[in-house]
Amino acid sequence: MNQAKYIQKTLATLYPHPEPPLLHSDPFSLLIAVLLSAQTTDARVNIVTPALFKKASTPEKMAKLKAEEILSYIKTCGLAPTKARNIQKLSQILVEKHKGKVPKTFEELEELPGVGHKTASVVMAQCFGMPAFPVDTHIHRLAKRWKLSEGKNVEQVEKDLKKVFPESTWHDIHLQIIFYGREHCTARGCDGHTCMICKKLNG
Predict the structure, then answer these.
(1) What are the CA-CA distances from residue 107 to residues 16, 89, 115, 174 (Å)?
(2) Calpha distance 42→62 (Å, rounded)
(3) Which of 154, 117, 155, 114 is nearest to 138 (CA)?
(4) Same domain for 179 and 146?
(5) What is the DSSP letter of 112?
(6) Residue 94, pLDDT score
């Protein structure tokens, strides 16, 4: 069994039905949650978003808030002032250009303030069922540790992982790798020989 197949089988056993870790109820709430998750833990995002979405659950309502008011809800997240401004501008653009709907293409999503390729990939995969492979810091780290990619940026890592894992698995496996990286193959807790998968690959 090659490396990718072993990894895929092991992760599927550990996390048979992976659920997105960020609380959301629709494409807009997921878009905002993923934007907030940059340099912030998912747990922290899940603490601040319920109150924010209670105040403004749609792009129309969010666009009417001032950036300072948005900031008051998200101030414990990293880069909060910039994120608050981006959320306000993003919401205005959704109202003015997209009739209050989150667009369903990578190009349109990545034109929104604060939305990079990873954020767009999460929304496309989890909300619209499009084949995408979002790469976060855990995936980048483990792809290199497991010798699946030598890519120095997320775009190259994404391309490499798409080649080794079947498209039908992308939705689940990107979540499974994240969970495994948090729980078993952590940055400091595994030296490339400690966790179950690393032991097998390097044993």
Answers:
(1) 32, 17, 11, 21
(2) 21
(3) 154
(4) yes
(5) S
(6) 98
pLDDT for the residue 1: 55
In the numeric block, which tokens belong to residue 97?
């250009």
Q: What is the pLDDT of residues 155-194, one digit of tens each?
A: 999 999 999 999 999 999 999 999 999 999 999 999 999 9
Q: Which residues are catalytic?
A: 118, 136
> 102: buried, middle or exposed (CB in 10 Å: 19+, 13-18, 0-12)?
buried
State which residues of the chain have pLDDT below 70: 1
CA dist 71 and 147 (Å) reads: 40
Task: Please count the structural domains in the chain.
Answer: 2
**Degrees to nearest 5, angle at CA 173 with 162 and 26:** 105
Please give the angle made by the CA atoms of 101, 98 and 170, to the nearest 5 degrees.
55
Mark whether 99 and 150 lie in a shared domain.
no
Question: In terms of residue numbers, what domain contains 77?
Answer: 27-126
